[in-house]
Amino acid sequence: MKKNNKQRSLLSLVLMCLMAFTNCKMISQEPVKSDIVISKNAKWSEKMALTLMKRHERSYMIDDSKNPKWDYVHGLVLHAIEELNKVQPDPRYAAYVRDYVDTLVDKDGNIKTYELEKYNIDMVVAGRLLFDLYETTKDNRYLVALQTLKKQLEGQPRTNSGGFWHKKIYPNQMWLDGLYMGEPFYAQYTVTFENGKNLDDVAKQFEQIQLHATDPKTGLLYHGWDESKAMPWADKVTGNSPNFWSRALGWYAMALVDALDYFPKDHPKQKELVGYLNTVAAALAKYQDKSGLWYQVTDKMGKEGNYLEASGSSMFTYAFAKGANKGYLPSKYKKLANKAFDGLTKQLIKVDADGTITLTQACQVAGLGGDPYRDGSYEYYVNERKKDNDPKATGPFILAALELNR
């Protein structure tokens, strides 16, 4: 009898250990993404988000990174998935976003791979992912990370006229890209934690780039402006770079519609920013191709080597649609956005057998100066490499699809 009891006890112990081991394995395992099923009837925003999740098991991998890094492309795409989750709630979306933040932000609020002293404004935009997490969890580490990024903006080097340098290594330079990287975060932070006291400074960034980088003839804005006029790419009179790059203009248009979310209608600068949005939208509408899309070099339609480009086109689609939905732009821009979205889905999207989608013809990267040197010439922009489903295209595509309810 005693022997049977001992055997039973031993068996129970073994079973408990096995169950504990199995449970531990189940808890620690990463979610399997290969089982994601994408319905033919799903909206385009869902199709793209689920495609990215199926192809990139962890959210830090969306730009094919092998190791986690704090970066603007993750901030862009995961912000889009956050917005999708508000419209079409799905625990997988929330988990995918949080996985990125919790991989990069440690228990004390330190942001891994981030270096404040570089004053690279690109690194601020991923901070937008922290607001909702802090609001819902009240976990202090998210607040510490938010405060760190705000500290960068407080110390960000500026032009003599008050505009943020793009990076410490690019002195006296403002790039259109930088407006999206810094201003929506800055606006949300000052409204959330400072009762909006710095909204005038947010507006000042747009004022500076609008004042200095706008071409009076076309109404388009040049990719970069060097206040010192010292860079070889800078015009010796204006300080502007030589060409109009659609993605740079797209960053600027998106920055305006997103920053405006935090400007009360009665704020003295609100109408000014809405005016900038109308000016750039009217200029861009003149260069929309009959396909609904825009070219890589915006104003050189049909010139040899130029091509209809996915990221800039997606960004303009989003900015036009959101601008019209919010009442900042006339309703005709919603029609132009739908025409553009038709162009994206009919000309640049490929649908695979498993329901995943690929957005083609996206410029992978472009900049000014640096090493190797980038001169901002027409030939430079049209010869930079392209990448399918580049995050700078997929994020705005999701946002555009959401605004258009497509």
TrEMBL record:
Signal peptide: 1-22
One Pfam family here: Glyco_hydro_88
GO MF: hydrolase activity
UniProt keywords, alphabetically: Hydrolase, Signal
Biological process terms in GO annotation: carbohydrate metabolic process
InterPro entries: 6-hairpin_glycosidase_sf, 6hp_glycosidase-like_sf, Glyco_hydro_88, PolySaccharide_Degr_Enz
PANTHER family found in the cross-reference section: UNSATURATED RHAMNOGALACTURONAN HYDROLASE (EUROFUNG)
Protein name: Glycoside hydrolase family 88 protein
